[in-house]
Amino acid sequence: MSVRRLPPVALTVPRLLAARAAAEPEHVAVQQGGATLDLARWQARTQAVAAGLRAAGVRVGDRVGLLYGARDWIGYVCAYMGVLAAGAVAVPMSTRAAPDEVAYMLEHSGATALLHGQDAARFDARVRLRWGPDEVAELPDAAPGDGPRPGDPAQILYTSGTTGRPKGVIAAHANLTHGARLDPPLRTLAHSRQFLHAFPIGTNAGQTMLFNALTAHAGMLVTARFGPEHFARLIEQQQVGSVFVVPAMAIELLASGALERHDTSGVVLFGSTAAALPPAVASGLAAALPGATIVNYYTSTEAAPTQTSMIFSQERPAAIGLAVAGGALRVCDEAGQPCPAGVTGEVWMRSAGAPRAYLNDAAATSQVFRAGWTRMGDIGYLDADGYLFLVDRESDVIKSGADKVSTIAVEAALHEHPDIVEASVFGLPDPVLGLAPAAALVTTRDLRLADVRRFLATRLAGHEQPSRIVRVAELPRNAGGKVVKSRLRALFDRAATAAHADPEAGPAASNSSAIPSASETSGQEAAKPWPKQ
């Protein structure tokens, strides 16, 4: 006789915390510097904040801004949980954002209250209630209240805004807790005592780490700044078993040699998220961390918590992976019909749980969220076994003459060059082709365009090769670690008066000017690295 398996019960985030705090009160969920937060204290501070907000007049469904810096993760996770336990909606933000951006998020979300950390004094927030660290610390312990329901909204998380103004993505408790259990037979990251990351607050990657701290076997070890030497030293000193980065961090770790100078043999899982990990970088990580499984994760603020997961394999070095946790993938043509294996189209992802939506933007919601499916904004294809391969961001594909150029493919080829540390490829106006590929490069030495093109000759077709290059100190990135290509295009605009044709570039580049790979342009917008706070 078969036993029918019951579907999982929809949960709220505060209920998950309460259940785990009761079962494992002394478990250290968060550690930053010398400060720690165990589950019992996390639960106590959560209820104190919730009771204080209710007493101050914050009602169920009210939006509450959370403005914290990278040094204040413990204060942030307590404030976040307290807002949710009060039945209010959290609006996470980072002090790395510009004041105008914070003002926009507070106004757009309709926030009436703000909880903030030490670094938020410069932000002029027009809200009814504003509490800093001192006010929050003085809140007395309190008994749990009724709390929210699974279908109630829990958070509004703003997108990175790389292609326009940030959009608020609203998620219900049932979305955030999808797949979670009050008493799971096995917790994730069971092989690790701690997991390490340096993601900023207010990003989708940062929120994923917060929920790892809530549900995983391993506790969160977070550092306010990322530097390869500091990061590798933490891995060694704390005997970290799981590490999470974005590709920019992985590239810095490899290029610096920090992984070789420190004992990282305890790393079992090395995960990369936020952007596709170049195959050459993944291969380098596999060699530097022979005892670790290298995993590439793919999702978006709109699609989370659904994601794909791919263990790096030399058989499929560029694959992004298969959908996990009950999700599904499809690649569709312009008519919305599924494409056969190997055919390029738009990437869509479906969650098995409650979908998300844009706040106050019905038109954009109807374009991106359809019948449980989320449009990812990427172009890609599935192979015969269902593995996803990304071709490019839909907005980044370069339409050069009659050809379409994948910036991801060009960047992957550039990363194979021994003197190129990082690369970002984008289209620049061309009088004949419309657009032509250009590249901003972080290199260990000066490289001429002709040298780069000779290296790429056996790796890329002629129309895919950069017609212009510029050497920069660092690539400009937003809080989520993604390159802001508009700032790189501006470098070429300002340098246009100094541009000249490269006589060695060959016929394929004769229709475009070549900007010298000199360092005079590297100290401007491009000199904004991943935050090393």
UniProtKB/TrEMBL annotation:
Residues 497-519 have a biased composition (Low complexity). InterPro entries: AMP-bd_C, AMP-bd_C_sf, AMP-binding_CS, AMP-dep_synth/lig_dom, ANL_N_sf, ATP-dep_AMP-bd_enzyme. Residues 410-482 form the AMP-binding enzyme C-terminal domain. Gene3D superfamilies: 3.30.300.30, N-terminal domain of ligase-like (3.40.50.12780). GO terms for molecular function: acid-thiol ligase activity. It comes from the Bacteria. Keywords: Ligase. PROSITE patterns: AMP_BINDING. Pfam families: AMP-binding, AMP-binding_C. This is Acyl-CoA synthetase (AMP-forming)/AMP-acid ligase II.
